[in-house]
Amino acid sequence: MTRRRGKEEGGAQLPADFAAANSSRSGSGYLSKPEELLSSQEKSPGTKDVIVNVDYSKKAEAESSKQFSSDTSPMMRKGSKGQGVALNSVDQRLLDASLQFQRKQGKNTIDVWWLFDDGGLTLLIPYLLTTKKKWSNCKIRVFIGGKINRIDHDRRAMATLLSKFRIDFSDIMVLGDINTKPKKEAVAAFEEMIEPFRLHEDEKEQDVADKMKEEEPWRITDNELELYKTKTHRQIRLNELLKEHSSTANVIVM
Questions:
Q1: Are residues 191 and 163 part of one domain?
Q2: How confident is the model at residue 23 (pLDDT cuts 50, 70, 90)?
Q3: Cα–Cα distance between 237 and 110 in angstroms, integer?
Q4: How far apart are CA 200 and CA 195, in angstroms?
Q5: What is the pLDDT of residue 81?
Q6: Is the whole model's pTM more than 0.90, yes or no?
């Protein structure tokens, strides 16, 4: 593409014949030779030179960029006076959660619940957090499941593993009661929470239950609730332990 400097930049004035000659090259970058250009004496009578001024100033580029961005950028919500609209409670909580990792955390804990061997990823994430200045004062606590008669053995084995990973930790807690049944109050609270989402097909006619399954496949059936009863109770028990041991932690990694 041929760049033409205008009169304002101190360049030579270009007649329209020259512009037309170069545009006919289909953008191949071809520059006309001097002998191919017609002098003012060789032009046909009645023709006039048309001066093309191209403004290459930064101001023109900025205005062009601004016009393009205004057409392609997403719209932002503004109030009647051009001020930002206040976020609702849900959006505010999401914003606070997204900014949590950017705040200085102080001297608190990062609790790691390593319930199965995932190759060390659950331990790596908290370690990477502590390498940042805002998280450097936080201590890592590790929670693992185990048996009551092997608590000391499991703690030493975990300490050896963390040493191999070169991860500093403040404490290792072996939970020997992780597989016990949850409290009745916790189970009742869980059942109350999922009650609006249950199907209760055993209490309905077969055709009515089948129609509800088809129209609302997300509802929890009695069969599913019984099928996953063991896993559900384990998660309820784990929730109890989390509230008991990690309620004051800055971050819980599971």
A1: no
A2: very low
A3: 21
A4: 9
A5: 55
A6: no
DSSP 174-229: EETTTTSPPPHHHHHHHHHHHGGGB--GGGS-HHHHHHHHHH-TTSBPHHHHHHTH
pLDDT for res 103: 79
Same domain, 127 and 169: yes
Residue 118 lies in a domain: yes
pLDDT tens by residue, 75-102: 344 455 556 667 788 888 888 877 877 7
Place of tokens 């060390």: 120
In contact, 30 and 22? CB cutoff 8 Å: yes
Question: Are 165 and 249 within one domain?
Answer: yes
Structural domain range at position 27: 7-60
Residue 80 belongs to some domain of the structure:
no
Which amino acid is it at 141? Answer: R
146 in any annotated domain:
yes
Do residues 249 and 161 both lie within one domain?
A: yes
> What are the C-alpha distances in Å from 14 to residues 45, 53, 86, 174, 179?
19, 9, 56, 85, 87
- Total of domains in the chain: 3
- Residues 45, 149: one domain? no
- The rounded distance, in Å, linking the Cα atoms of 27 and 37 is 18
